[in-house]
Task: structure prediction
Amino acid sequence: MVPRFPNFFMLYGPNTNALPLPAYFEARARFVARAIARLDARRRTVEVSPQYFTALNAWLYRRLSGRVWAQTRSYYRTDSGRVVSNWPGTATSYLLASRILHHFALRYS
Result:
């Protein structure tokens, strides 16, 4: 999700490439389904809070900057050197984040 783009979900990328891919796909699908299920006549839009978006990206940058992906020339990183494809943690950390963060990071209006 991207701030100021309500009801917009990305199911693959950025920073979502990791193994086992089916578990990541399922976690993202559950995240989206939960967010959509909370929409009703009063709450018609959902978007990620800019505060949480910025904090997650800062955390991702810190975690990924020391990894081998940041040291090589490949499709993993942009021209600026930022790694944009891989998740820096374990599958368990991703699954937990996808279950917990929607309670804090999403704004409904």
